[in-house]
Amino acid sequence: MKHDEYDVMNVDGARPVKMWTKGVPVEDEARRQLSNTARMPFIYKHIAVMPDVHVGKGSTIGTVIPTLGAVIPAAVGVDIGCGMMAAKTTLSANDLPDNLGTLRSAIEKAVPHGMSPKTRGFKGRDKGSWEKPPQPVDQAWAKLKDQFDVIVQKTPRLRNTNNYAHLGTLGTGNHFIEICLDEEAFVWLMLHSGSRGVGNAIGSHFIEVAKQDMRTHFVNLPDQDLAYLPEGTQHYDDYVEAVGWAQKFARMNREVMMLNLIAAVRTVITKPFEPHVEAVNCHHNYVQKEHHFGKDVLLTRKGAVSARQGELGIIPGSMGAKSYIVRGKGNPESFHSCSHGAGRTMSRTEAKRRFTIDDQVRATQGVECRKDVDVIDEIPMAYKDIDAVMEAQRDLVEVVHTLKQVVCVKG
User: Fold this and answer.
1) Where in this protein does the record put region Disordered (predicted)?
2) Domain carrying residue 199
3) Does 208 carry a binding-site annotation?
4) Can 340 be counted among the known catalytic residues?
């Protein structure tokens, strides 16, 4: 079935799947996952699929899943609260140093990033964590610690996570810090990260709890990663509390990183500047209660951004591609949501098999960034065309700013 705005995939015995994917590829496996999710008995109204949709764990990434009376922990995932933060400055392109490498080095020194190899017997500090957290980390952790202690009393295995030492750090994979220029050559500071190790531990724990509950009650599922926690159970209440805390951690993680990013830029650019002319901080991997179509539902945005009427959001492209600051149009059919990025077209393994360092160098020409074998999986060609993705969701958001990165830091 076709509409002017979206296509509808009807699944026997399931809720409709509304897809804003015109002009962008959707894998067969992604369609299968969408069908499986739509068959879950607690889906409310329909599932909304964003143009960056691609295969995930159990449920597709780039999907909005409204539920009544249950939550699927694997749909929220393990990078709980992952999202973006961007700030426009009063600096212009002419204020940037001729050698952008100095700026990249200052950022890499100021913000822990990456991860130490997990080798047998390794007992050193993870290079992606703080050895001695600075004051902003202490101040942020003070706002998080009491509730974390309550969560740990219920789930003791979460105690020995790298929580405090990870607050204000970047991580690995597609997480990044960028210096960008907008259409008027103003400098923007942008970063992408989530709840780090503690969020991963929370997500992983409750995914396994949900699977065990399904086995205990002999619940048949189309995919084991669609295991759910029913509302009214202790496990549901514990998860909602823990995931809410992890989302607070993720937001503060980005705020602390932004403070350190600004400080790093000031060490290289001595000209005084205002760093928050415009600022956005948004999750794109989270769950929360929202009101839609007359009901209070638990809405999971798995790789999607809230796009209520007038609300600002961030849609990044890949390394070497444009990114966008957008304003939501408040489309109710998408549950007031839009895409969270370009979306992968292939797995990380396939990208490393198919492309070379030379390909990476060509694809990121003009960007001061790593160009080595360990970031080939992030090559722009492993992602969908961001222009096609934006065109497919023009009824969901309007573009406010178009950004092009000049410096990119990855873990």
Assistant:
1) 114-134
2) 7-118+127-345+383-410
3) no
4) yes
